[in-house]
Amino acid sequence: MAKDQIISAIDVGTTKVCTITANVGYGGGLQVLGVGVTPSRGLHKGLVVNIPEAKQCIRESVRKAEQASGLKIDSAYVGVTGRHISSLNNRGVVAIPRGDRLVRPDDLRRVLHTARTVAIPNDRKLLHVIPRGYTLDGQVGVKNPVGMHGFRLDVETHIVTAAVASVQNLVKCIRGVGVDIEDLILEPLASGEAVLRPDERETGVVLADIGGGTTDVALFRDGNIWHTSILPVAGYQITRDIAIGLGLPFEVAEELKKRHGSMMPIYDAKEDASTIKVEDGYSVSYRDLCDIIRARVDEILRLIALEIPGDDPLREVPSGLVLTGGSSNLTGIATLGQEVLSMPVRVGVPTGVYGIADVLPDPAYATSVGLLLWATSRQEGEQGWRSRGLGEAFRRFVFRMRKAVAR
Ligand SMILES: Nc1ncnc2c1ncn2[C@@H]1O[C@H](COP(=O)(O)OP(=O)(O)OP(=O)(O)O)[C@@H](O)[C@H]1O
Ligand SMILES: [Mg+2]
Predict the structure, then answer these.
(1) pLDDT in tens, 345-364
(2) For the chain, counts of helices (H) and of strands (E)
(3) Are residues 187 and 60 in the same domain?
(4) CATH number of the CATH domain containing 110
(5) How far apart, in whole angstroms, are the C-alpha atoms of residue 225 and residue 229?
(6) Which residue has a Cα nearest atom 20 of ligand 1?
(7) Which bin fits 142, alpha (ψ -120 to 50), beta or left (φ > 0)?
(8) Is residue 217 part of a domain?
(9) What mean pLDDT is reported for the chain?
(10) Ligand 1 probe mutation, 10, 11, 14, 215, most atoms within 8 A of CB
């Protein structure tokens, strides 16, 4: 990537829309120049359900980021999530036909092309074809075969598809506010960029972004993506449980959750027996509040664990679970996760940016920051599993393909 290039990302979440404009310095450092956050409207469980409303809040978010940075946003990297996302793993194989048997970037393009020739229904579009690992003449676990010699090159890929209609609705909203789409990126992949450490990806880790409408799950192993899944339950359901369970309006329940929500009243004897007075004359038992929240979070954690294959989760993901997304701000969520799942659990806060980024070191912004990190590391072509072995030609090919999806 050229020195001092300006890029932008728009994270259209169920709860908030966040636009960030950043300057990519030499070496890929990201200096945030402007952030625009607005509450979401017109979205449900990660999907656009009301185009005019969604467009309006995307416009507000983009305008705020433009005002903060003093720069016009013409194009942006955009996150995609929702139940319509599905993924599968597929293999591809090609022969290395030339006399020197040297693997070249073009061979990677060919082998990835064969891997993506799976039957995809007309109503679905390819979002990502991610190489998980190469095998060269039976030698498994080759991370970058370019420059190596062999006769037969196999690739294992993770293929992510999305419902055309859902993507089109999102694209329509973004284009409708005068912003072109650079790339559509699956949200848990972006969040992973912002909160996971390289050693965690290498040994095996599950990332769960518990947002407002969806919990986005991605499993990484050997430095590569292994599995992705979007669960339609998150912070909204926690608040709804509080509202129904304690007979409160939704907004009061939401505020109560954010201000006082905790997993562990048992460890907090003083607070445990107390009553919380809420605005508008409501008062609730602290223990009841925490019991309701804990029951739903317990369920979400178990649903996340179901995404880990095999009988022994710790063998599959020795680095355990990294929680992020706004709902991972709940006090004690990592401790509850460790108790319920018997594995290491930590909360991941986005890192990797500097500048005017005061609000960003919060799990709620993992996707927003991750979209930018994804974009830069992809274009730098140096680091990260997705760029490893991806020739420039293939990157351009994927880029064009995504633009086609966007149309
Ligand atoms: N301090 C907090 N304690 C508990 N929950 C919180 C806190 N802060 C935010 N949340 C919850 O986090 C959720 C929003 O998270 P986030 O901003 O990651 O979602 P989103 O990206 O808008 O939605 P999604 O990714 O699901 O489409 C809301 O349900 C909100 O109630
Ligand atoms: Mg989100």
Answers:
(1) 999 999 888 887 788 999 99
(2) 13, 19
(3) yes
(4) 3.30.1490.110
(5) 12
(6) 13
(7) beta
(8) no
(9) 87
(10) 14
